[in-house]
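From the shared-data thread, chain only:
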Amino acid sequence: MFAKIKQYFKEVKQEFKHVNWLTKKEAMKYTLMVIGFSVVMSAFLGLCDFAFMQLLSKIIL
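Structure, as tokens:
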């Protein structure tokens, strides 16, 4: 049983050598892109919510 666990971790170590890790610059660029996209989408959805709320309040009242 311990031999299988040892073999598993040995193979995991070998697979980590094949991974193409991002550079710090790339990681920062993609992180900022995701944050920017999230801000833009939240502003858009907030604007849509406000518009629909105003529209419904005029229809109901």
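DSSP finds two helices and no strands in the chain.
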